[in-house]
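From the pipeline queue, job 12 of 40. The input is one protein chain; the requested action is below.

Action: predict structure.
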Amino acid sequence: MTRKKKTRSAGTNGQRHLSAEDIRKTRQPKEETKKKGAGLKSGSRNSMLAKTPEAKRESAPKDKRLGSKKPIALLAQTEAVQSAQIAVVEPKASLAKAKPQPLSPQQELALIENDSQLQALLERVERDEILTGKDAKYFNAKIARMEQLMAELGLSDDDADADPLAAFESKDWRKDILGDED
Protein backbone atom coordinates (compact mmCIF):
# COMPACT_ATOMS: atom_id res chain seq x y z
CA MET A 1 0.00 0.00 0.00
CA THR A 2 1.16 3.34 -0.81
CA ARG A 3 1.46 6.02 1.74
CA LYS A 4 -0.67 9.22 1.40
CA LYS A 5 0.53 12.53 2.78
CA LYS A 6 -1.86 14.32 5.15
CA THR A 7 -3.06 17.77 4.25
CA ARG A 8 -4.63 20.49 6.28
CA SER A 9 -7.59 21.00 4.04
CA ALA A 10 -10.71 19.21 5.09
CA GLY A 11 -11.45 17.96 1.71
CA THR A 12 -14.82 17.30 0.17
CA ASN A 13 -16.47 15.60 3.12
CA GLY A 14 -15.64 18.38 5.73
CA GLN A 15 -17.38 21.70 6.57
CA ARG A 16 -17.44 24.26 3.87
CA HIS A 17 -16.08 27.67 4.79
CA LEU A 18 -18.55 30.45 3.90
CA SER A 19 -17.61 33.99 3.17
CA ALA A 20 -19.03 36.87 5.28
CA GLU A 21 -21.24 37.87 2.38
CA ASP A 22 -22.81 34.45 2.18
CA ILE A 23 -23.40 34.37 5.95
CA ARG A 24 -25.27 37.72 5.85
CA LYS A 25 -27.53 36.41 3.12
CA THR A 26 -28.48 33.28 5.03
CA ARG A 27 -29.07 35.07 8.32
CA GLN A 28 -32.70 36.17 9.03
CA PRO A 29 -33.18 39.91 9.59
CA LYS A 30 -34.10 41.02 13.16
CA GLU A 31 -37.60 42.25 13.85
CA GLU A 32 -37.60 45.95 14.45
CA THR A 33 -39.04 46.84 17.91
CA LYS A 34 -39.79 50.18 19.51
CA LYS A 35 -37.13 51.34 21.96
CA LYS A 36 -38.25 51.29 25.59
CA GLY A 37 -38.43 54.64 27.35
CA ALA A 38 -35.90 55.05 30.17
CA GLY A 39 -37.47 57.99 32.00
CA LEU A 40 -38.55 61.52 31.38
CA LYS A 41 -37.19 63.63 28.62
CA SER A 42 -34.21 65.72 29.53
CA GLY A 43 -35.03 69.21 30.72
CA SER A 44 -38.67 68.46 31.57
CA ARG A 45 -38.42 70.37 34.88
CA ASN A 46 -37.07 73.42 33.20
CA SER A 47 -39.63 73.37 30.41
CA MET A 48 -42.37 74.08 32.99
CA LEU A 49 -40.61 77.27 34.07
CA ALA A 50 -40.40 78.49 30.51
CA LYS A 51 -44.20 78.76 30.22
CA THR A 52 -45.95 82.07 30.70
CA PRO A 53 -47.35 82.91 34.18
CA GLU A 54 -50.99 82.81 32.98
CA ALA A 55 -50.58 79.35 31.51
CA LYS A 56 -48.93 78.22 34.74
CA ARG A 57 -51.93 79.20 36.85
CA GLU A 58 -54.51 77.67 34.55
CA SER A 59 -53.44 74.22 33.43
CA ALA A 60 -49.92 73.42 34.57
CA PRO A 61 -49.58 70.89 37.39
CA LYS A 62 -48.17 72.26 40.63
CA ASP A 63 -44.45 72.03 41.08
CA LYS A 64 -43.82 69.93 44.19
CA ARG A 65 -40.57 71.72 44.87
CA LEU A 66 -42.42 74.88 45.83
CA GLY A 67 -43.26 75.01 49.54
CA SER A 68 -46.31 76.01 51.53
CA LYS A 69 -47.76 79.51 51.19
CA LYS A 70 -48.81 79.60 54.86
CA PRO A 71 -47.31 82.63 56.59
CA ILE A 72 -44.84 81.98 59.42
CA ALA A 73 -44.55 84.37 62.38
CA LEU A 74 -41.00 85.63 62.69
CA LEU A 75 -41.42 86.80 66.30
CA ALA A 76 -42.43 84.61 69.23
CA GLN A 77 -46.04 85.03 70.34
CA THR A 78 -46.75 86.26 73.85
CA GLU A 79 -48.30 83.93 76.42
CA ALA A 80 -51.59 85.85 76.46
CA VAL A 81 -52.04 85.37 72.73
CA GLN A 82 -51.12 81.69 72.94
CA SER A 83 -53.54 81.04 75.80
CA ALA A 84 -56.31 82.75 73.84
CA GLN A 85 -55.59 80.52 70.85
CA ILE A 86 -55.58 77.30 72.86
CA ALA A 87 -59.09 76.44 74.00
CA VAL A 88 -59.30 75.00 77.48
CA VAL A 89 -61.37 71.84 77.42
CA GLU A 90 -62.93 70.88 80.72
CA PRO A 91 -64.30 67.40 81.24
CA LYS A 92 -68.06 67.08 81.43
CA ALA A 93 -67.94 64.50 84.20
CA SER A 94 -65.63 64.35 87.16
CA LEU A 95 -64.02 61.13 88.25
CA ALA A 96 -63.99 60.25 91.93
CA LYS A 97 -62.89 57.14 93.74
CA ALA A 98 -65.69 54.92 94.90
CA LYS A 99 -66.02 54.99 98.66
CA PRO A 100 -67.17 51.86 100.42
CA GLN A 101 -70.42 52.39 102.28
CA PRO A 102 -69.94 52.34 106.04
CA LEU A 103 -71.29 49.26 107.76
CA SER A 104 -73.72 49.44 110.63
CA PRO A 105 -72.30 48.37 114.01
CA GLN A 106 -74.37 45.14 113.90
CA GLN A 107 -72.98 44.23 110.46
CA GLU A 108 -69.41 45.03 111.50
CA LEU A 109 -69.76 42.97 114.68
CA ALA A 110 -71.12 40.04 112.65
CA LEU A 111 -68.12 40.27 110.29
CA ILE A 112 -65.66 40.24 113.20
CA GLU A 113 -67.39 37.26 114.83
CA ASN A 114 -67.32 35.31 111.54
CA ASP A 115 -63.65 36.11 110.81
CA SER A 116 -61.90 32.76 110.34
CA GLN A 117 -58.42 34.15 111.00
CA LEU A 118 -59.59 35.66 114.31
CA GLN A 119 -61.23 32.37 115.27
CA ALA A 120 -57.96 30.50 114.67
CA LEU A 121 -56.06 33.03 116.78
CA LEU A 122 -58.65 32.72 119.59
CA GLU A 123 -58.13 28.96 119.65
CA ARG A 124 -54.37 29.48 119.94
CA VAL A 125 -54.85 31.93 122.85
CA GLU A 126 -57.17 29.46 124.62
CA ARG A 127 -54.39 26.83 124.35
CA ASP A 128 -52.13 29.35 126.16
CA GLU A 129 -49.92 30.06 123.13
CA ILE A 130 -48.23 33.45 122.95
CA LEU A 131 -48.99 35.41 119.77
CA THR A 132 -46.20 37.47 118.20
CA GLY A 133 -45.76 39.88 115.32
CA LYS A 134 -48.57 40.43 112.87
CA ASP A 135 -50.79 37.85 114.54
CA ALA A 136 -50.69 39.70 117.87
CA LYS A 137 -51.40 43.07 116.22
CA TYR A 138 -54.31 41.63 114.24
CA PHE A 139 -55.76 39.87 117.31
CA ASN A 140 -55.49 42.97 119.54
CA ALA A 141 -57.00 45.29 116.90
CA LYS A 142 -59.98 43.02 116.22
CA ILE A 143 -60.68 42.35 119.91
CA ALA A 144 -60.48 46.09 120.72
CA ARG A 145 -62.88 46.94 117.87
CA MET A 146 -65.21 44.16 118.97
CA GLU A 147 -65.30 45.57 122.53
CA GLN A 148 -66.04 49.07 121.17
CA LEU A 149 -68.91 47.77 119.05
CA MET A 150 -70.36 45.74 121.92
CA ALA A 151 -70.20 48.76 124.24
CA GLU A 152 -71.83 50.92 121.54
CA LEU A 153 -74.63 48.39 121.09
CA GLY A 154 -74.97 47.77 124.84
CA LEU A 155 -73.99 44.11 124.60
CA SER A 156 -70.89 44.20 126.84
CA ASP A 157 -70.24 41.13 128.98
CA ASP A 158 -69.05 42.99 132.11
CA ASP A 159 -70.30 41.53 135.46
CA ALA A 160 -71.33 44.95 136.74
CA ASP A 161 -73.59 45.52 133.74
CA ALA A 162 -75.01 42.01 133.94
CA ASP A 163 -76.14 42.29 137.60
CA PRO A 164 -76.72 45.89 138.76
CA LEU A 165 -77.90 44.75 142.20
CA ALA A 166 -74.56 43.00 142.87
CA ALA A 167 -72.69 46.23 142.19
CA PHE A 168 -74.99 48.08 144.56
CA GLU A 169 -74.43 45.55 147.35
CA SER A 170 -70.65 45.43 146.93
CA LYS A 171 -70.27 49.14 147.53
CA ASP A 172 -69.88 50.25 151.14
CA TRP A 173 -72.34 53.13 151.47
CA ARG A 174 -71.61 53.69 155.14
CA LYS A 175 -68.19 55.13 154.44
CA ASP A 176 -69.64 57.63 152.00
CA ILE A 177 -72.50 58.70 154.33
CA LEU A 178 -70.81 58.62 157.72
CA GLY A 179 -67.28 59.33 156.64
CA ASP A 180 -66.03 56.80 159.14
CA GLU A 181 -63.09 54.61 158.57
CA ASP A 182 -64.28 51.66 160.71
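Job complete. The chain has ten helices and no strands.
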